[in-house]
Amino acid sequence: MGNKTNGLLALLGLGALAYWKYKKSTPEEQQAVKDKINTAKDNLNKWGNDLKSKANDVASQAQAKLDEAKTKAEDSLN
């Protein structure tokens, strides 16, 4: 339990330090931070969409193979 508490306190401290540093920075530096965050968010969204697309492709391929196997099984029974 102590490690979790220490970890949370460390995160809270880092967050407070980052917030303080951001507030004391110039408007240009603040805009640079916003741009980095937006770029990271866009990259994460793109990665998530690519991953979802690949998962859908694999699922449709698996469904097609299952349908093919069902058809072959039904044909062999008849």
Care to describe what's here?
The chain is mainly alpha-helical and 78 residues long. The chain has one domain (2-77). The chain is 95% helix and 0% strand. The protein is built from two helices and no strands. It has helices spanning 2-24, 27-77. It is elongated, with a radius of gyration of 25 Å.
The major β-sheet equals: none
Unreliable stretches, pLDDT < 50, 5 or more residues?
A: none
How confident overall, as mean pLDDT? 93
Helix content: over 70%
What is the overall silhouette?
elongated
Overall radius of gyration: 25 Å
Oligomer: single chain
What portion of the residues fall into strands of 2 or more residues?
Answer: under 5%
How many beta-strand runs?
A: 0
**Tally of alpha and pi helices:** 2
Terminal CA distance:
64 Å
Protein name: YtxH-like protein
Organism: Chryseobacterium limigenitum
